[in-house]
Amino acid sequence: MKHMNSEVKEERTSNKKRIDLFLVPIVLIAAFLNLFKIWTDEYANAYYTAAVKSMLQSFHNFFYASFDPGGYVTIDKPPVVFWIQTISAKIFGFHGWSAILPQALAGIGSVLLLYVLIKRTFGVWAGRFAALAMALTPIVPAVSRTNNIDSMLVFTLLLATWMLFRAVRTVKFGWVLAAFAMIGVAFNMKMLQAYMVLPAFYVFYVVATKITWKKKIAFLTTATALMLAVSVSWAVVVDSTSADKRPYMGSSQTNSVLELAFGYNGINRLTGNTSVTGSSHKQPAQTEQQTASSETKQNSNSSADSSQSSNQRKSSFSQKMQAPGGGNQNGMFNTGNPGPFRLFQKGLSDQISWLLPFVIFSIVGLFAGVKFKGPYTAKQKESLFWLAWLLPVAVFFSIAGFFHQYYLIMLAPPIAAFAGAGAVALWSMYKQHNDWKSWLLPGGILTTAALQVYIMSPYVSSIGVAPIAGVGALGVILALVLAIRKQRKNSLTNYLGAAAMVVLLAMPAYWAMTPIIYGGNSMLPSAGPDSSSGMGGPPSTATNSKQSGFNGMQPPGISSGNSSSNNQMQPPSGSSNGGQMPGGSSNNGQMQPPSGSSNSGQMQMPGGSSNNSQMPNSFSSKSSSSKRKSGGMNAEVNQKLLNYLTKNNTGEKYLFATTDSTSAAPYIIKTGKPVMAMGGFSGSDPILTVSKLKAMIKKGEVKYFYLSGMGKGGQSDVITWIKENSKEIPSSKWQSTSSSAQQGPSGNGTLYEITLK
Question: CA 119, CA 135: separation in Å to the nearest integer?
């Protein structure tokens, strides 16, 4: 106990020391990568930004995280991060950047927390290198520059880790409770994803705490109970509230938070099962996958792009999507195919895996000579913690059926921790040993450089041959020179070791800057030379790589005036369905199959919106402006439609109703007025019935309906009734641009009016 008290006193003394001057530039780098130009993203992720706009208007909307100001449906995540974003918007005003700011600060905070966590046990240089590796992990700033949840989630889990480490050092039960309660808070950010770190917490506390087994079990049981109570606290309140007194729980099929947590945001992520049942219909749901599918379309604003031949486009798509032997190596949204080497496949490797070989060598070095029964040093105990974080998360991403690239930020802390701790450990072994341990450093450098060459090779057309050849050559040379000079202990050897670390971080640093250089995407953030496409795969044939490229979806009432199919995406040969997304109905946003394919190959837009995959001219002209509206959704407003709806509103609660959040979000952001997304985020939520809609119309709550395509999930009956009992508004009254070539079976959408007595 005296020893523990002396450690606490030592920690307090160290905290009073002056700031680490080497940490300052690392923090400045993190600040630049996370903050620079976030003010140019006007809408951010429009789905979440619309919710912040709504939550600013009332405590009711704030508490439930309502997507719309009318309190009709919530967003598909718990509210804690959006509470923080709303507070930020309240303080700084409602902007895209004020919604992004908390996540950007969380990204910087994660760098600082990792420095503190690693420095105390592994040394100051280990802490510095770990912090730098965290800052330069490409997916970290890519996510932190958006209003998505994951950056804040990782910061919260690292804060919980700091509390757990303090609990072990001080042997104080209060810190154990605080650590697990913080995981409960993280659950209310992104549900079950927060629990991915639990194996690390349990293993570390059991191994590292010097108390009796009886106390360990009692403390962990109590702490787990508190964690569960905090986790379900909001869900219990919401689910116990009468459904008519709160918004519908978005993306659930039973209007339940717990069903959302363990279904849509839980088990379905592992299994990849996205089918839902709505009303009497059973069909694939339009989930995040479907909305994201529209983001894969590359758009053009130059004659050079529009003059590409279909063969060239087919070749480009095949190069991106076909693996050797005809397999789909990139998988859905470039998340690869499940398997033990998934994290080394393109699409994932360039987001997170740059240092993985070095991490593997570091793990070997840090655990060298460890006996199963102990005793364990402090370094070995904390290494076990980071390993118990790394392995389960890596296994999940290796086998999961559905996730997005930016979820990989969950792997960043343990990878950065092992990179920092391992760099110091391997260097020490290199300098002090003559056995096999001394070969770990040059071996780690050589294999890591080889992987980085592999990661960069698909991007040769974007970044050129020089950086690829440079990393490969320097990696080989430095590894060989270090191997040759293994017995020589002088300053030149030290410089060579430092140079090797610089070489290994050079390209991750460039990749981390690509969202700034090329523009990012706020809905599906990723890093790389094509970061604005949100796909993180090899670059497309688009000539303007800085183009936003994510808003091929057209806002209600804006027709492209171009029926060309030049931008249609070709699926890999042999595709059985032509690449149609779950729940897709035919439209003109097509993936055109080769001859002989059994399906028309049309790629469904969110909400069934017809689209020819071409960016409207009104948006293309703004793609290089100082303010980006690339909200990953339909982040444009048809002013003529808005004027018409505003002028003809006779006291209705909702400005208009539409199938899903894609069309609704920009109008909520622009006006702050209620817009009803009848089927929630994707249009598949069974929220509305014909009888409920009739009652709403009779009460004078809504009379205008913008429809594009067929209803999804439980909404098809509602859509059919609307079409059969409404008056169609002539497009000349509300379309901002007329076009003789309507795209798809329902054009760019139709505006209906219904009044019932």
Answer: 16
Contact 303, 415 (CB under 8 A): no
Cα separation of 456 and 458, whole Å?
6
Gyration radius of the chain's alpha carbons:
27
DSSP structure class, residue 672 = -
The alpha carbon dihedral of 374, 376, 380, 382 has a sign of positive
pLDDT at residue 180, as a whole number:
98
CA dihedral 335, 339, 341, 342 (to 10 degrees): 10
Phi, psi for residue 281 in degrees, rounded to 5: -110, 145
CA dihedral 662→668→673→674, nearest 10 degrees, is 30
Contact between residue 688 and residue 718 where contact means Cβ atoms under 8 Å apart: yes
CA distances from 526 to 405, 452, 467 (A): 7, 17, 21
- Confidence band, pLDDT 50/70/90 cuts, at residue 189: very high
Is this prediction's pTM over 0.70?
yes
CA 648 remoteness from chain centre: 39
> So what's the pLDDT on residue 658?
95
What pLDDT was estimated at residue 629? 54
**DSSP string covering 175-235:** HHHHHHHHHHHHHHHHGGGGGGGHHHHHHHHHHH--S-HHHHHHHHHHHHHHHHHHHHHHH
Helices assigned H by DSSP within 612-652: 617-620, 639-647
pLDDT digits (tens, 9 = 90+) for 394-418: 999 999 988 999 999 999 999 999 9
Query: Up-side HSE of residue 417: CA atoms within 13 Å toward CB?
Result: 28
